[in-house]
Design brief:
With 310 residues, the chain is an alpha/beta fold. The protein contains 9 helices and 15 strands. A hairpin with a 3-residue loop joins strand 13 and strand 14. The longest helix is centred in the middle third of the chain and has 14 residues. The two termini are 19 Å apart.
């Protein structure tokens, strides 16, 4: 998956969260709620709680058709402790709709074991649980737990990417389906360096794991220069970089095809350090005129343009 899937559904069954780690500092849910006068720290069950099992009055069929990808709990965390009283019912609905594909992202992977249903086993085929690691400290804490967790489909989310992250020691080629990297959007966003993005990509190529550079973020460093990226261009510029990677098909129970080497994978994908799409990057983005070290030291001096939030 290298883009948000069309004709998908968003299922926010409860709303609100508690900031947990560095990646939460400029949470988009908190920003949006503040504009609407909503307390993001108040965890509430939403009116769409039963969305997956809602039926049409006309013929009694499900409103969400078979095969739909359902983005789950994107204005909260599915494993938030405050939602413990509601989660069993949520699992019942997910179990009932095994014809859908549920995808959720968590920073609370350490709560998985106490939150899954009794019949979870080694995971459900129609459920993807992604784990966020925004810096090295969180990677070193969460990835060992995530690697060992009984989940059928795993994706590592490095967004917001706040520093260079070394994931080489976690053997992601044995268990992860994808690594996603992206910068931070919104007012007060912290810079994302293209070198950090490429370091993750290179490790993915080496281990045969798909890689998706999702967005630059509002403040993006390339070749030591800091650029302010308007909101409307953050996904566009990431896509134009041309650094997404799809490995060869996997066989033998999900492992890489042993008949192909990582070098053969590289030959099938662009591995250039200079992305093709950055030719117009400097035209559409404002270089802040700071070197990399100065940018990191004085983020408050940078006025990034914003054209609206997600």
């Amino acid at each position: 998956m290298n883009a948000l899937e069309q004709r998908s559904k968003m299922w926010n069954l409860w709303h609100g969260c508690h900031k947990l780690s560095a990646g939460c500092e400029h949470c988009y849910v908190y920003r949006g709620d503040e504009k609407r006068g909503i307390d993001s720290a108040a965890i509430v069950k939403t009116g769409s709680f039963d969305l997956p099992v809602q039926r049409k009055k006309r013929d009694g069929t499900y409103k969400i058709p078979e095969g739909t990808l359902v983005y789950t709990c994107f204005t909260s965390d599915f494993f938030l402790a405050d939602a413990d009283p509601w989660r069993a019912e949520a699992w019942d609905m997910i179990r009932e709709r095994s014809d859908l594909r549920f995808l959720m992202i968590t920073k609370r992977i350490d709560r998985l074991a106490e939150c899954v249903p009794d019949d979870w086993g080694d995971g459900w085929e129609h459920v993807t649980i992604c784990c966020t690691v925004e810096n090295q400290e969180r990677a070193d804490y969460r990835l060992p737990i995530y690697k060992a967790a009984p989940i059928k489909h795993k994706r590592i989310i490095c967004e917001p990417l706040l520093e260079r992250i070394d994931i080489a020691s976690y053997d992601i080629g044995e268990w992860a389906e994808q690594v996603l990297a992206g910068g931070e959007s919104g007012a007060g966003a912290r810079p994302c360096d293209f070198e950090w993005v490429m370091a993750l990509r290179e490790e993915c190529v080496r281990q045969g794991v798909a890689f998706w550079f999702k967005q630059t973020g509002a403040k993006f460093i390339k070749d030591g220069k800091l650029y302010g990226i308007p909101r409307r261009l953050q996904h566009v510029q990431a896509r134009k970089a041309g650094v997404d990677f799809t490995p060869c098909p996997k066989r033998n129970g999900g492992h890489r095809d042993p008949r192909r080497s990582a070098e053969e994978d590289r030959e099938q994908q662009p591995s250039r350090r200079e992305p093709t799409g950055f030719a117009d990057f400097q035209e559409n983005s404002r270089c802040q005129g700071h070197d990399e070290n100065e940018s990191r030291g004085h983020p408050g001096h940078i006025a990034a343009k914003q054209d609206g939030e997600e």
